Amino acid sequence: MREKRDLKVQAIEKGTVIDHIPAGQALNVLHILGISGDFKSTVSFVMNAQGARGKKDVVKIEGKEINVGELNKIALIAPGATVNIIRNFEVKRKYNVIIPNYIEGVLRCINPNCISNSKEPIKSKFAVLQSEEKEVFLRCVYCNSIIYENIVRHLF
Amino acid sequence: MKLLNSFCFSDAGLYITKPEEQKVKSQGFPLKDRMSFKNRHIISMKDFSREEIDFVLDTAEKLEPAARGLEKSRLLDGKLVALLFFEPSTRTRLSFETAVNRLGGKTINLGSVEASSVMKGENLADTIRVVSGYADVIVMRHPKDGAGRMASEFSSVPIINGGDGSVHHPTQTILDLYTIRRESHLEGLKIAMAGDLKYGRTVHSLCQALALYGADMTFVSPPELRMPPEIVRELKRQKIRVKETDSFEGIIGDVEVLYMTRVQRERFPDPEEYLKVADSLRIDAKLLKAAKPELKVLHPLPRVNEIEHDVDSTPHACYFEQAFYGVPTRMALLALVAGVIK
Q1: What does the DSSP 8-state code read for residue B8?
Q2: For residue A59, which of A45, A96, A98, B143 is within the disulfide window of CB 3.0 to 4.6 Å?
Q3: Is B16 contained in some domain?
């Protein structure tokens, strides 16, 4: 069983492994990381893999250690994910992605009349909230507009 | 700097930060300091606790004789208040100007936007930085949503938000609450709000503030102009009794305050539909015969035709007094943020 799973996604020498991504969000994670068809290194991902806590997605990126800005964006769509920085086939650092309570300069407000969408020298600011159903939503600090869904579409 | 969790790699390139400490107090400081209004921005009703609202209303009541010209006040003597109105306003601008004058202060004025540096392309942040070097308090109205909050980030003096876009207008809510307290009562009020409840920032803000006092609310509007569901949900979460309807039938005889708002013609692509809706939300003296004697009718003004003129002479009409109460409430806020009343 173990061998079969290993065949699905090879171990990487250097780079990042993002595990426990909510099922179906792997493509959005790649979008956040700016990984498209012209990315030169090896990228592998698994969608809807059966994990101990239900279905999940996994992304492995050869040769790229993701930065804190990228991580903060991933946190919005993949709370509960784990990030492993790999060097020489070993996990060098491991982080749990936790939903922030405040983000700045990450998304564009959905309200075209919001002051953060004007020529003013400010970054967008959002309070990050969770519904009773544990769904993440964002409230603009300036205009109170709420982003309930398709968060990834509003990322800068 | 404390980030959010265990995943921060370094302090470089932080996208997630806590709001910076500001020179001027805004939301988010410890409760024990909150009753100090000196140097505090007035941006949104969400920044107020019930105790703070009560304190502002108490202060307004003490200043009411001065607002009526029955007493003289020199509380703002030597203070300069900048009035930056980036869009047209009659009552808000005039009542602020009256409030400053009644307190013995002086105003400086942006004048028309066309004649100001805004026309040269200056952004709001720079305007605020410059004017906060001139004045002790800035009162601002701006067409952009959230402009008040942004101005507070760039100002070294308190900003009082006189309305920004379609979101915040805290001084209107304070004067509405003051009117209700003076003319009726705040605790456990039975209130109906009628008209454009979908886009009307005054009703959104007022019902959220009234929820702090417990209230029985009825929302009267056509289906297309209903109160936003997220507000209704939040009110119900706070155990507020909410009823939604599209006519005054069975409502008038039951409420203590009727808060009317204007239905704007531009919300309706079809003029016929507008007329139909506007007609169904019109009140007159005949309709008010079914009201309790103590019913008070409020309206943020200007009215178009939603309140017939024959209501003006009934004891229910309260909207002109409500407009006057804008003066003592704005006097209170000015005096508090300027630190001349503690």
Answers
A1: -
A2: A45
A3: no
pLDDT of residue A53: 81
Beta carbons of B4 and A98 less than 8 Å apart: yes
The closest of B257, B255, B310, B256 to B282, measured between CA atoms, is B310
Please check whether residue B186 lies inside any domain of the structure: yes
User: Using one digit for the tens of pLDDT, what is the confidence trace for B45-89?
Assistant: 999 999 999 999 999 999 999 999 999 999 999 999 999 999 988
Q: Distance (Å, rounded) from C-alpha B111 to C-alpha A139?
A: 34
> Which of B117, B124, B149 is the mutation pick for testing A, counting most A CBs within 10 A?
B149
Residue A55 is encoded by which pair of tokens? Answer: 């279905």
Q: Which of A80, A76, A81 has the alpha carbon at shortest distance from A156?
A: A76
A122/B153 Cβ within 8 A: yes
CATH number at residue B65: 3.40.50.1370
Determine which of A95, A126, A142 to mutate to test the interface with B (most B C-beta atoms within 10 Å): A142
Active-site residue B93, yes or no?
A: no
Tokens of A2: 């173990």
Across chain B, what does the average pLDDT equal? 88
Residue of A nearest to B7 (CA): A95
| Predicted pLDDT of residue B200 | 87
Q: Which of B9, B125, B146 minimises the CB distance to A142?
A: B146
In this prediction the ipTM stands at 0.84
> Are the C-beta atoms of residues A110 and A148 closer than 8 Å to each other?
no
Give the nearest partner residue to A83 out of B4, B7, B230, using CB atoms.
B7
- Which entry of B25, B41, B79, B141 is annotated as an active-site residue? B141
Rounded to whole angstroms, the Cα distance separating B179 from B283 reads: 20
Look up B141 and say whether it is catalytic. Answer: yes
In order of their start, the domains of chain A are 2-96 (3.30.70.140), 102-154 (2.30.30.20)
pLDDT the model gives residue A9: 59
A148 to chain B: closest CA residue: B230
Looking at the structure, tell me whether residues B213 and B123 fall in a common domain.
no
Q: Which residue has the tokens 């959104």?
A: B204
Given B32, B120, B237, B239, the catalytic residue: B120
Nearest to A143 among B19, B143, B167 (CB): B167
Residue A12 tokens read as 């990487």
Is A120's CB within 8 Å of B13's CB?
Answer: no
Whether residues B193 and B304 share a domain: the answer is yes
Exposure b/e, A89-102, CB count within 10 A at least 16 = b: eeeeeebebebbee
Q: Are B160 and B171 in contact (CB under 8 A)?
A: yes
